[in-house]
Amino acid sequence: MKVWLILLVTLWLPSLSLAQDLPRGMSFIGLTAEGWRAFTVGESGQPELVNDLIEPREFTWSPSADRMVFIYADGTIAERQNAATQIIVLNDARDAFTQIRLSRKGQELIAIRLFERKSEYTALSVWQPQRQHFSDIHQQLGKIFDPSANDDKYMFSVVTCMLDCGGIVQEAWVKDRATRDAKQLTLHNGILRYPIWDTHQQRTVYSLRTKKHFQLWQTNKSGESTQLTRTDATDLWPSLSHTGELFFVRRTGGRGQLMQMSDEGEKQIQLDHIRDIRDLEITQ
Known about the structure:
Elements: H1 2-12, E1 16-18, E2 26-32, E3 35-41, E4 47-54, E5 58-62, E6 67-71, E7 77-81, E8 84-89, E9 96-102, E10 109-114, E11 122-128, E12 133-139, E13 143-149, E14 153-161, E15 169-176, E16 182-184, E17 191-198, E18 203-209, E19 214-220, E20 225-227, E21 234-240, E22 246-252, E23 255-262, E24 265-270, E25 276-282
Parallel strand pairs: 1-24
Antiparallel strand pairs: 2-3, 2-25, 3-4, 5-6, 6-7, 7-8, 9-10, 10-11, 11-12, 13-14, 14-15, 15-16, 17-18, 18-19, 19-20, 21-22, 22-23, 23-24
């Protein structure tokens, strides 16, 4: 009996890891015994609770800029930098903003604008601190989701078809900062979410639902697409560390688990006292 127990433990260990040496700049919203709370990972490599933020709707953070932006449960958007907090969008503003995201080094805050608080017409917007409001940098026919940004481009997904196409079609798009040109990157005819650019391997990584579940896929700079995960679970929020490590959230059994993918395969990272996670991202 003891021999079999040791064998089972040995087989399990490679696929389960404790939360140690997580990348600096990781953040997520986690479900604890006290409810949904925001967590950040700094120099310690351990998730650290943002103590005075209760039940955030959304959260984004950059350690380099010492800056975090969050949406309270009532829809108010606040920014905290150098320990000072200010409200930037009131919950009764004419337009609503969602899917807030700080750029890679925290110098830029981007969001999706919902005109007149409705989802029929949307835009990709950037916060202008000098003018204290969001300015649109991209509008197009179709609903915009999942913004991200780096030094060269903005990336997002767009719902381009809902009728007469057999279901929702949502693809990855990119907008060049220099030329201001926008183009579609993928053509899966499925539902694509959370696209991010991997500078290390020159690829776009995203979650794609073609049948029942979302799985991780990649498209390289030549336009070739490859499926990365193959499970009966739902894989969301791919995020890359500054050294190119790929982390994501796997939802199974009604809860989210932090996962890491490497050349050796996939492993689950155990997060003590955190029952569920969502909105994973990694900045600098």
